[in-house]
Design brief:
By secondary structure, this protein is of the alpha+beta class. Helices cover about 30% and strands about 25% of the residues. Strand 11 and strand 12 form a beta hairpin. The mean pLDDT is about 95.
């Protein structure tokens, strides 16, 4: 077999966490980082602006397949690469739905998949009408560019979004209004697909948010019945096949009190909800993504323990880098697996994570949160 050369655009923590499985599999991993000293600097073979076609094409010439640490590379650049014969995985036609939430909603509707009620919004009057139809409150999103709680607002009148309407053309020419779902918890279904059509899923997980950012992931999702598990896996398969996704796909969902699943967001890359798999699965999401985009056979996604819990390490202030307390956390919580992203500290920034495996999710969560507190406070 010829050893694939895999190029990752983006030098963040997701590219960083692809390095160990690439080394283990003997794959060549190249990273196009945005700046020197990026999280994935250890594998950065180029530094440049992914918004410039020549920069991206020069990088693509050094590898066999292009994939991503994020979904922000302009589609026009990816389409030009594909037109010139470069392999882009996931392809531009799939990433179009990850980059634009309105396009995503419209395509999922065509696939008859469950979602919150939604509407494409161009005017304040349209928004006020939608709010009135959905109990006087709505979720408003910018279709492009939002993540980790950014570009999302809870609103009760169009006046709450006056600044977005003033800049609507810069935001993509429209806004996305969704009903505010009365959910009991948030779930995520991770899956992977290669270009041969092989498909695999991990356990459905529960995610918990803090200020719009994922703070805790519990695998498997506690008390999920088989109907829910089967439904979530089928949703992921339908999306992956229907949108032509290759690589890892994360489907974030709401679960309602009557057991319904409603699709919230999509990500076509390794995802925060799957970091537990580094320690908690036979094949991690990072290894699986490399296998999938290189069209290699997919790995076993079985769990390695009864329960796995991941706790994100979010920056508390500009001086908190967590690493200074690693020795104390290791000594007091030897079962905790500590992961750092090599980032400059900043309040609210994802700086690393802790994963704990145990016989129950409650026991794993206790240890993971205790270890995280040591790392934060010392």
């Amino acid at each position: 077999m010829q050893i694939p050369r895999i190029g990752v655009i983006g030098g963040g923590q997701l590219a960083r966490m692809m390095v160990p499985p690439a080394v283990a599999l003997g794959l060549e991993l190249h990273v196009l980082a945005e700046t020197d000293g990026s999280s994935a600097a250890i594998a950065a073979t180029a530094v440049g602006d992914y918004n410039q076609f020549e920069v991206v094409r020069d990088f693509a010439k050094t590898v066999d397949v292009i994939t991503f640490d994020h979904e922000h590379v302009p589609l026009t650049i990816l389409e030009r690469l594909e037109a010139e014969g470069f392999s882009v995985q996931p392809p531009a036609k799939a990433l179009a739905f990850a980059q634009n939430k309105l396009h995503m909603r419209a395509r999922l509707a065509q696939l008859n998949l469950p979602m919150p009620a939604w509407r494409e919004i161009h005017t304040a009057a349209q928004l006020d009408e939608f709010i009135a139809q959905h109990g006087g409150v709505a979720i408003l999103k910018t279709p492009i560019g939002g993540y980790d709680g950014k570009g999302v607002r809870v609103i009760r009148s169009s006046g709450d979004a006056a600044d977005w309407f003033e800049n609507i053309e810069r935001l993509g020419g429209a806004l996305l209004a969704e009903e505010k779902v009365a959910f009991t918890r948030e779930l995520a279904q991770l899956s992977a697909r290669n270009s041969s059509g092989d498909f695999a899923t991990w356990s459905l997980v529960e995610t918990r948010q803090e200020n719009g950012v994922c703070s805790v992931v519990i695998s498997p999702a506690p008390n999920a019945n088989q109907t829910t598990l089967d439904h979530a896996a089928q949703i992921a398969r339908t999306i992956s096949e229907g949108l032509g996704v290759t690589g890892v796909l994360a489907v974030e969902m709401f679960e309602t009190s009557d057991g319904r699943l409603l699709i919230n967001e999509l990500a076509m890359r390794p995802h925060n909800s799957g970091h537990f798999s580094i320690d908690g699965s036979v094949t991690s999401q990072f290894e699986q993504h490399l296998r999938a985009v290189a069209n290699l056979p997919l790995g076993d996604t079985s769990s390695t323990a009864a329960a796995a819990v991941m706790v994100n390490l979010l920056g508390v202030d500009d001086s908190n880098d967590f690493v200074r307390h690693f020795d104390k956390a290791m000594r007091e919580h030897p079962s905790a697996k500590l992961h750092t992203y090599g980032k400059t500290a900043r309040s609210g920034r994802k700086m690393g994570h802790v994963t704990v495996l145990d016989q129950t999710s409650a026991a794993a969560l206790d240890v993971a949160q205790a270890a995280a507190e040591v790392l934060r406070r010392g």
